[in-house]
Amino acid sequence: VQAEERQFLIEQHLQKVEFASLEELS
């Protein structure tokens, strides 16, 4: 996995986690 691709995957994962926590709060 290239650095850029890994960075993209990390950002995607963070967005997913953030969205999940927002869903739980609502």
Topology, please?
Elements: H1 3-25
Question: What are the defining features of this structure?
Answer:
1 helix; mainly alpha; 26 residues
Instruction: Indicate the percent of residues in helices.
Output: over 70%
Low-confidence stretches: none
Distance between the termini: 36 Å
Structural class: mainly alpha
Strand content: under 5%
* Principal-axes shape call: rod-shaped
- Mean pLDDT level: 95
- Secondary structure tally, helices: 1
Q: Write the H/E string, N to C.
A: H
Largest sheet: none
Radius of gyration: 11 Å
Instruction: Please provide the count of β strands.
Output: 0
Explain what you see:
This protein has 26 residues and is mainly α. Helix content is 88%, strand content 0%. It has one helix at residues 3-25. The longest helix is centred in the middle third of the chain and has 23 residues, at 3-25. The radius of gyration is 11 Å and the shape is rod-shaped. The model has no long low-confidence stretch (mean pLDDT 95).
Summarize the structure.
By secondary structure, the protein is an all-alpha fold.
